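Hi V.,

You were right to ask for the full record rather than a summary. Here it is.
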Amino acid sequence: MAVTLRDIAEKAGVHPSTVSRILHNNQTVKISEETRKQVIAIAEELDYQPNELARAFRLRKTQTIGLIIPDISNSFFSGISHSIEMQSYSAGYNLVVCNTNENSEKELKYVRNLINRGVDGLIIATCQNDEKYFLELARKKIPFVLVDRFFDNLDSNAVYSDNKQSAFRAVETLANLGHKRIGFLRGRSGLSTIKLRLQGYLDAINLLNLDHDPQLIAGDGFTVEDGYQATKSLLKLSAPPTALLTSGNRIVIGAMQTIKEFNLKLPDDLSIIAYTDNPYTPYLACPLTTISHPLAEMGEKAVDILMQKIHNPKDKATSRIEVGTKFSIRESIAALNR
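Predicted structure:
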């Protein structure tokens, strides 16, 4: 049976309220140092564990935050989750992680469930195509931070990467190597991340006078199969691309599978730059040129913002933080030789 404050009080010969004040470091009432040491020693001897439910009811806080992500097996989201867990723990909070598998209905169900369980705030990498539900969260004054994905029409806290600038730089790098027909395997088109990368891609195409062909933009998902099929559609064009920009950890795996089936060699027959945070990319037979994300920083900043909102509920200001990506040039790109 669980040890209670009354058990400690009886053994120490004091009132339960005195035990409570000592164990919660409440110094509003003067208590002798000798009594403090005695109560703490007895609590340790009896292996007293505080009743977190009672504490949550009293303080109206559960010291728990919810994290909702679309794919825990994706190294991008698992990396961010790891950072968020460490930062939450350091702040004295427990973390509940929910995985939606890019299912918008599942995401909404998890949000409702976490709120009903009394979490103090939410961090969400959303798979919603619009901001409607998040307007409701804001109206209910539930603290939340969006990570990686956000909405232009929603004034919300968010942490995301420099998607537009990084896509522009990738295309510019390929153009400087002589490539004019550059394909883009974009991923799910309705997400802010992909919209910004597409804009960066198109800005570079137009500014650098490259081939502006809608057929060079392919794909509408993040799975290996999406990458496989999108790459196949590009390579079957009468004028296929000489270079690719792929937008996701799983997409590039599918792209590599197709490239192998077409008996193409990197970078002799095709150059490729990938948005990926897979740790193995530098060690492939042809190490990939990549755009990767500061996952630890993104997770830390998301938790920092959420803590500010939890501890300062009257602060209505929102924070949007854009973090820089890392561009690592390796052996998968080369000057066009045809």
